[in-house]
Design goal:
Elements: H1 8-13, E1 28-31, H2 35-46, E2 51-55, H3 66-79, H4 83-86, H5 89-103, H6 165-168, H7 182-196, E3 199-200, E4 215-216, H8 221-233, E5 240-241, H9 250-255, E6 260-264, E7 267-273, E8 279-286, E9 291-296, E10 300-302, H10 306-315, E11 340-349, E12 364-366, H11 370-373, E13 383-391, E14 396-405, E15 414-422, E16 428-433, H12 438-458, E17 461-462, E18 505-507, H13 522-538
Parallel strand pairs: 1-2, 1-10, 2-6, 3-4, 10-18
Antiparallel strand pairs: 5-12, 7-8, 8-9, 11-14, 11-17, 12-13, 13-14, 15-16
Helix pairs in contact: 2-13, 3-5, 7-13
């Protein structure tokens, strides 16, 4: 049955309807081809397992989405950073606003994402894929249906930072300890970093432990100027080169093994169990044809993104877990987190060192800046800031600063199935109930003050008069709703990301996080995925 394919395109083309006929069996199935799913597939394929990846990514023909397809190219051109150097800011701003207004017709939520302008067609159609929120508790669920997931969208931050030992064992009572230690994950952090080929530095900071860096960075003249000015104003602040890398070509590299099979435009509907209760396969629907398929495998990795993965767990009840896999713990759907986000933008003077635009992903990072500007006000939970400086025209530059603060897990921040209403694929939609608490609002106020102070240090005139936290979900760093833990009474997943209620099912996207940290979550997601694959293969 299986043949060797040298490219991802061929792996997709050869994954035919005949290959996927009912009863087809693979060694492993991966649901979702984003950061975690692609990485899981790569590791499984490298280990010799015949692995099927199903991914919801599907580009409808232009006659089915004429407005989205027509708008996408125009918006992307104006959002390209190169345009900042050649077009007057007023023209860029007016053009982008007009085209964004067109995009809101079908994508009223997705247009809120800062990266939407770079590739509108990658994001879902909100009319076809709705969700609900309670009155007064808005949530921006930013979603892409594109192979590689959100990290593949141009403009994605590309930032990768380790969690510190304190993130895994918080001592303030605001969240449970993780069921593993920093030491348990360290080798898997290293493996992911080597594969990513990180750019950055060795900084010796407790809050963001050093990573394995392939491309050592030092400050360029503009960054050195800002670091010097910052040190004068805030002597205790740490400023380091951001650690970044282009998206990992996981699926392409997996295809080189000859063990990858890939089906795009496949929306998972249910996780299948065998008579022994173990994972046995996946059922999905294909939007292009409305065909339903069932394929078998004794090993399933669920990596569809936190809310999508949890929706699938809720839809996959069994005789032992009728309300969904993990529902008996009381944790399924609960403890939704998204970084508290505050962002400012403005215009500053000409940058030292020339007019060359920085490489995509390059920034300055200020980890735990709260301890430098306000003392240890927030204890173990604080925020970090990413600073971006981009050359402009006429002796100007563009200044952007984004602060990410930790949201702590609460049972009141959660998702629920609304079975009476379905999306275009026939899946029950979600109600997302999430809001900032008093602690997060206080944190956001401090973040806003810090960003204003940093703009002053950089000599930037900010564009906005009111600085306020973004709607939850806007950071696109959602975590939780199917957390891992030490006991099936309090968690959905075991310490190796395996579902307590369905052995052989591993969930390795950020839905598994018991707490969030202030760092970008992607590197920890990759490390957890590597550890889960190792456990699945070697026990």
């Amino acid at each position: 049955m299986f043949k060797r394919f040298p490219t991802l395109a061929e792996a997709e083309a050869r994954t035919t309807d005949e290959i996927l006929a009912d009863g087809a069996r693979f060694d492993a199935i991966v649901v979702g081809g984003g950061a975690s799913g692609g990485y899981a597939a790569r590791l499984l394929c490298e280990a010799g397992l015949q692995t099927l990846v199903i991914d919801a990514g599907w580009t409808p023909p232009i006659h089915k989405a004429p407005l989205r397809r027509a708008t996408s190219g125009l918006v992307s051109a104006l959002a390209n950073p190169a345009a900042l150097r050649y077009l007057p800011p007023r023209i860029i701003y007016k053009g982008r606003q007009a085209l964004k207004a067109m995009g809101r017709v079908r994508q009223p939520v997705q247009t809120e994402c800062y990266a939407w302008e770079r590739d509108p067609a990658a994001f879902v159609d909100d009319i076809d894929h709705p969700y609900e929120t309670p009155p007064g508790r808005p949530y921006s669920w930013l979603r892409t249906h594109t192979p590689g997931g959100r990290v593949r969208v141009p403009g994605h931050g590309r930032q990768y930072y380790r969690f510190s030992p304190a993130e895994f064992e918080p001592g303030d009572g605001l969240s449970p300890a993780w069921p593993l230690s920093y030491g348990d994950l360290a080798a898997f952090y290293t493996d992911a970093e080597v594969r990513l080929g990180l750019s950055g530095g060795q900084d010796g900071l407790d809050s963001v432990p050093d990573s394995v860096v392939t491309h050592e960075l030092s400050f360029n003249p503009a960054e050195a100027d800002l670091q010097t000015a910052l040190a004068r104003q805030f002597p205790g602040a740490a400023m380091i080169p951001g650690r970044y890398a282009p998206p990992m070509e996981s699926l392409g590299l997996a295809s080189l093994t000859g063990n990858l099979w890939c089906r795009r435009g496949a929306v998972a509907r249910q996780l299948l169990a065998g008579s022994d209760g173990r994972a046995a396969g996946v059922e999905w629907i294909e939007p292009a044809t409305k065909a339903r398929r069932k394929v078998s495998a004794p090993l399933v990795f669920l990596c569809a993104s936190p809310l999508e993965s949890t929706r699938l767990l809720m839809l996959s009840g069994s005789s032992a877990a009728q309300d969904g896999l993990g529902a008996g713990s009381g944790a399924l759907g609960c403890h939704l987190m998204d970084h508290v986000l505050v962002k400012v933008e403005g215009i500053a003077g000409e940058l030292s060192g020339g007019n060359t635009a920085p490489e995509a992903g390059r920034c300055l990072f200020l980890p735990r800046f709260d301890t430098a500007i306000a003392g240890d006000t927030f204890g173990e939970r604080g925020y970090g800031i990413q600073l971006y400086q981009t050359p402009g025209d006429s002796g100007r530059s563009w200044f952007t600063a984004v602060a990410f603060g930790e949201m702590t897990p609460k049972t009141t921040n959660r998702i629920r199935l609304q079975r009476a209403r379905t999306n275009i694929d026939g899946l029950p939609i979600l109600e997302i109930d999430c809001a900032l608490g008093e602690r997060e609002r206080s944190l956001a106020a401090s973040m806003g003050e810090a960003l204003v102070a940093l703009a002053d240090v950089a000599g930037a005139q900010l564009a906005q008069d009111v600085i306020a936290p973004a709607t939850p979900g806007t950071s696109a760093h959602e975590c939780g709703t199917a957390r891992m833990g030490a006991s099936p009474e309090t968690s959905v997943l075991d310490p190796f990301n395996q579902c307590w209620d369905m052995p052989g099912l591993f969930v390795t996207d950020a839905s598994c996080f018991p707490s969030q940290g202030f760092q970008n979550p992607t590197l920890t997601v990759l490390a957890l995925t590597g550890r889960a694959v190792d456990h699945a293969l070697n026990g």
